[in-house]
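User: Structure tokens for this complex, please. No commentary.
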Amino acid sequence: MALIEITNLNIKLGNRLVVNNFSATLSAGTITAIIGPNGSGKSTLIAALAGDLPVSSGSIAIDGVGINTMSLRETAALRSVVLQSRNYWLAYSVREVIAMGQGPAEIARIDLVLDQLDMASFADQSVTTLSGGQAQRVEIARALIRDSDIYLLDEPLSAQDSSSKERIIQVLQDLRASGKTIVVIAHSEVSALDWCDQLFNLGS
Amino acid sequence: MRRALLISIALISLSAISLSLGATEVAQSWRYIFDPFNNLDSPAHQIIWQIRAPRIAAAILVGAALGIAGVLAQGSTNNPLADPAILGTSAGASLGVLVGVLFNIASIGSVAAVLCAAIGALLATLLTFSLARSALQLITIGIGVSAILTAIVGLTITVISRPDARSISFWSFGSLALVTPSALVILAPVLVVAAALAWKIAPSLDLLSLGDASVKHIGHDGQRIRWKAFLILATLVAVTVSIVGSIAFLALAAPHIARFLNGPRNRSLIFYAGVVGALILLIADTAARALVPPYELPIGLLTSLLGAPILIFTLKKGGDVWR
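Assistant:
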């Protein structure tokens, strides 16, 4: 269970103010969608929530503790992250990529997650041969095998067909039911995000 | 496992063939090769076991060290173009040895030269590492550092006038002709320890292939992994450069050929790239000393001539080994 409190957050990239005075409370057991046009700061915001980017001013706290005061291991234990970018240039199998850097408990969950995301058919295929949607699911699987309190997902549905989208949304809803805090960046219309509990439009 | 066995048998067989080849023709050389205690005082025995054998052992050890250094360079920078030459490590080691020799505190192949090379390699690597802000910058800044140091080494060798200037020049282009048995005593244990350490950090190098952000998200520090890899790499390069000079291309090609043989996993690459590096250098050195006797061909040109076609073939035939 984790409560994320974002207070008066400003993030500058170079001279450009990308996130401007953003505040929000993201409760445990909720799914929050962040939408907005290209360049509105969605990915920057999720990078800051992940602890990847320093904030210019304001704060991000998880259960009252500032994220900038946490160690690498502390933040890693709290949250799992799905990035938009994928960096597969070597022919590891899908199963190998999902297991990379994980502990025995996470590795024991691989088959379960492969099944949840309908990935068993290409689990032993090389990641260099995957379609965009399959590769995106590999990244989602890497996050899901970790039992974190927070899941941060940057456009997890952008390359998925409708049945895969439904599966992923179902998995996220199951995580919500178990008390996880979930933040999703989406490009969808508001009407397509009715499975989320709250929505922030960075373009407004 | 079968591939590992086959490539190991190939290395052993080629070592035996290499023992029988050289500038001086040895009659019934196989008798001496398969019975090392036969006629110990004969010239044939001395040629095979006291002149050729140490050099063959050096080719195998140096080739293996450079193959493993290539795996560490490419794995730690997450870049298929990386090798110790590109990162400035080799040029730093060369400059270290040259400074040691010019100030009469080391001779080529000695323990002092290894220490000078280690200092040079570590300082050059540290310079590249401290100036770079990303894995890509490591390559571009490393190329710059390497170019500066290589120019300093080249200019210094050109202008020096001392009795051993010719052997320094010969060493700078890479040669196994100056290898002594005492150098092997340094090389072998360093290689064993470095290979064991490389094997230990290999899974972290697999993880680095996903990019620094992915590494960070599961609680690991990409820069820390890179540092460990660079320290091992610098040690391997220091010990090889101090003994045989800079040998081109091997550290770049061996990991790619090894990936073609047994996939991208860095633990298996440590073994396969080591054996592939040993094989290429052994064949190149045998050709260097046996093709146009009594002249010795430049080993760096032969490793390129031999390794490049194999590299191109494996990348063309390798399918999805990497893209």
